[in-house]
Design goal:
- With 105 residues, the chain is of the alpha+beta class.
- The protein has a five-stranded antiparallel β-sheet with strand order 2-3-1-5-4.
- It has helices at residues 9-13, 31-42, 65-73, and strands spanning 17-24, 48-54, 57-62, 77-79, 82-88.
- It has a single domain, classed as RRM (RNA recognition motif) domain (Alpha-Beta Plaits).
- Strand 2 and strand 3 form a beta hairpin.
- This is DUF4283 domain-containing protein.
Length: 105
């Protein structure tokens, strides 16, 4: 199915869309491992970037437009046995001000 997909020039360049996330785990999570695992599901062609903001909080950058929609709407998501909670990025808030209280089911 992916072989038949035709991407526009803009899609081939990639789209960077921010998204905040928190892994509800007692142990610290590795950002690179998180990006690899979730990137395969959210953006299977180009993947995602994941910046560690500390305290198991991350900033995801989606390199495919549909990835952000998939991440927000098709959950809930798990990383190993731990829940991943996502919120739409709000550049007016600091990571500490972002509330991770909602999981779409």
């Amino acid at each position: 199915m992916l072989e038949r997909m035709q991407l526009s020039a803009a899609e081939k360049k990639g789209i960077k869309i921010g998204e905040g996330g928190k892994v509800m785990a007692e142990k610290l999570v590795n950002a690179e491992g998180l990006a690899q695992a979730l990137g395969r599901m959210w953006c299977p062609i180009k993947g995602i970037k994941c910046k560690d903001l500390s305290d198991n909080r991350f900033l995801f950058t989606f390199l495919q437009l549909a990835g952000k929609r998939r991440a927000l709407e098709d959950g809930p998501w798990m990383f190993g046995k731990d829940m991943v909670v996502l919120v739409d990025f709000d550049e007016n808030k600091t990571p500490e001000e972002v509330e991770f209280a909602y999981i779409p089911i």
